[in-house]
Amino acid sequence: MARPKPDQFLLVLFCFTSSSLCFYHGMSWQVAQEEDGMSWRLDEEDSEVDIVQTRHDPSRSCNFESGKWVYDQSYPLYDSNCPYLSTAVTCQKNGRPDSDYEKWRWQPHGCSIPRFDALKFLGKMRRKRIMLVGDSIMRNQWESLVCLVQGVIPTGHKKVNYNGPSMAFHALDFETSIEFTWAPLLVELKKGAGNKRILHLDLIEENARYWRNVDVLVFDSAHWWTHSDQWSSWDYYMEKQTVFQSMNRMVAYQKGLTTWARWIDLNLDPRKNQSHL
């Protein structure tokens, strides 16, 4: 698959807080330097977002995977009473008495990530669709991102709507949507004869129809593939017209990701879209 170019949109914002674990698992991307509006009226030029590099990395790229969690008294970046947080992931609503866990942030070894600025982000993502695709881990990331930006948007200028397995937060004045689509295995899971659950390793379109015309796609798929047989989400595998009662899970996972990668290559234009896994 083609590597995104430096002038495409950079999505490194998912290393938010300790309640939103960093899941950016791509390669080391160069810094995007796109000018766009950042004020509420969108009438000011956005200053360049600089990732500060060390002298050991003259290529101006940064591996965001390599780093450590550091305690930062200025965190969290959003209030735990954000209305878009589901009860299941709101620790304090479930009785946790402390809040220090909210004050950890991710610090890469080779650079510094600028503090998240919601208006700057919305300015850069103006008239863009961002979609997170995956399981409940990705749903948590969607909630965190929405909570990060919703506080700077006046009441009446934002909304959430639902469409089947998808939900979308809309920043109306920016014409920006932040969306989540449920697809924990990426490929299709269907009911077959005898109500048996069949995981189709080479089919994806039923899920992928929600991913079309999106500017930035972020995928996550692993957790559901590792469930034990007792908790497995399927009864059989199927590839083409062949049904398999058993298969090495990592082999099946590779086949599923190959189907996903093929869809990416055939349907996304790297000059217009970005995808991250």
UniProtKB/TrEMBL annotation:
The protein's topology relative to the membrane is:
Single-pass membrane protein
- Alphabetical keyword list: Membrane, Signal, Signal-anchor, Transmembrane, Transmembrane helix
State if Amino-acid biosynthesis is listed as a keyword: no
Short name of any one Pfam family annotated for the protein: PMR5N
Outline the extent of the Trichome birefringence-like N-terminal domain: 61-112
Secretion signal span: 1-22
Its annotated compartments are: Membrane
> Main location per UniProt?
membrane
Give all residue intervals belonging to the Trichome birefringence-like C-terminal domain: 113-274
* Similarity comment: Belongs to the PC-esterase family. TBL subfamily.
Q: What is this protein called?
A: Trichome birefringence-like N-terminal domain-containing protein
Give the organism the record lists.
Salix suchowensis
